Amino acid sequence: MASIAVCPGSFDPVTYGHLDIIRRGAGIFEQVYVCVLNNSSKKPLFTVEERCELLREVTKDIPNITVETSQGLLIDYMKRKNAKVILRGLRAVSDFEYEMQGTSMNRVLDESIETFFMMTNNQYSFLSSSIVKEVAKYKGSVSELVPPEVDLALQYKFNKG
Question: For this structure, is 141 an active site residue?
């Protein structure tokens, strides 16, 4: 059986921390679906379509990555893709507590689904999309935190307002 993983997230915007997990996951799994989800508890800066396009651009050099979006339960998307592994990145203990809740719920919905946690590279352990947006909003440099395409997209979003 082919090893297929799904790396879900809001990716608003994608950061080098996200890319670290995606690239490392692509080295482990035969196919990784990066699934852009719309988190109803967050107010996104970028549309789902914009986030997908940015992700496609910054992962175009990784042949076994497919970027898609899905509405509804992640478990339903996993079934459609015949995937048995959820790939998630962890930065700190606080991430683990949040992720444990989601993992436990997913196990209730489908006990055949496993969650694969990867510790992010130490240089990205502080990094979040929220921090990136906050710095970019006030014209601070985020060029060391996000790919150039994302940096330009952030500048455009905040300069047009």
Answer: no
